[in-house]
């Protein structure tokens, strides 16, 4: 089983008191969850699972607004997979998180409510639902821990370069996992092969203008941010390219396979 599993067992009091131990680029402050945050997180999870139940789908990408990326023209900051083994089975999330304050990540299986308890900027979410042939290949992979780890790297950077295996961020793990089921002409068994295929089929990362001060400050003050995997001609011109939820959605739309996007507003 993938480590870091958080089940739905445990009391409400425990949920309110425990600090967040893993993140996807959010702050790692040791702060108790407020009742309002817990209410909104559970309501957001209910809206997501109700939409999936209504559609009778068993797997999709799920994006959330963990950080405010609007200054870069981006909306959703973090993606994972939502899935269930069969209709009526519990919904689960598979995603990559780094340990707070570190440059080390792991893969997590957890309940949908937990997905929205990670220091959210907003509780909007988006489902990106695969066409049936891809769903049929993706669902078994999400239930195979060894297969998921084949494209996982524990060395984490929030702004990992998409075509380097030095680091990985949460969204690049999702993208590389998708490559293993999207590629039909070749079997992908590692990150290098996944990235080669993505480059071949034209995946385009998001590009952000990040000034030298911000770039150096991020490296000095946040262990989870590194830029040394980016090509010199890009980083020395303050152009940082990385995998984002927006670039994931654009890539899937460009493939014209029938992926469907369902945006879910935040609960009131």
Automatic annotation (TrEMBL):
Highest taxon listed in the record's lineage: Bacteria
* Keyword Signal found: yes
Residues of the signal peptide = 1-24
Key words, A-Z:
Signal
> Which Pfam families does the annotation name?
DUF2145 (PF09916)
Q: What is this protein called?
A: DUF2145 domain-containing protein
**Gene source species:** Cupriavidus basilensis
């Amino acid at each position: 089983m993938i480590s870091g599993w958080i089940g739905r067992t445990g009391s409400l009091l425990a949920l309110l008191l425990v600090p967040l131990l893993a993140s996807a680029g959010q702050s790692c402050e040791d702060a108790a969850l407020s009742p309002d945050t817990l209410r909104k997180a559970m309501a957001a999870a209910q809206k997501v699972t109700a939409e999936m139940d209504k559609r009778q789908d068993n797997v999709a990408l799920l994006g959330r607004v963990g950080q405010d990326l609007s200054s870069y023209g981006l909306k959703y900051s973090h993606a994972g997979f939502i899935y269930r083994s069969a209709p009526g089975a519990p919904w689960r999330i598979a995603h990559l998180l780094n340990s707070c304050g570190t440059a080390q990540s792991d893969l997590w299986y957890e309940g949908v409510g937990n997905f929205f308890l990670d220091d959210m900027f907003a509780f909007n979410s988006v489902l990106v639902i695969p066409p049936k042939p891809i769903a049929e290949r993706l669902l078994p992979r999400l239930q195979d821990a060894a297969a998921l780890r084949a494209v996982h790297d524990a060395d984490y950077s929030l702004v990992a370069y998409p075509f380097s295996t030095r680091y990985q961020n949460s969204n690049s793990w999702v993208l590389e996992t998708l490559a293993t089921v999207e590629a039909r002409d070749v079997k992908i068994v590692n990150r290098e092969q996944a990235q080669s295929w993505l480059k071949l089929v034209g995946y385009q990362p998001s590009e952000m203008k990040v000034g030298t001060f911000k770039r150096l400050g991020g490296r000095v003050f946040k262990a989870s941010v590194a830029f040394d995997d980016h090509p010199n001609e890009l980083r020395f011109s303050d152009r940082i390219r990385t995998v984002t939820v927006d670039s994931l959605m654009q890539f899937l739309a460009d493939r014209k396979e029938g992926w469907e996007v369902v945006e879910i507003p935040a609960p009131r």
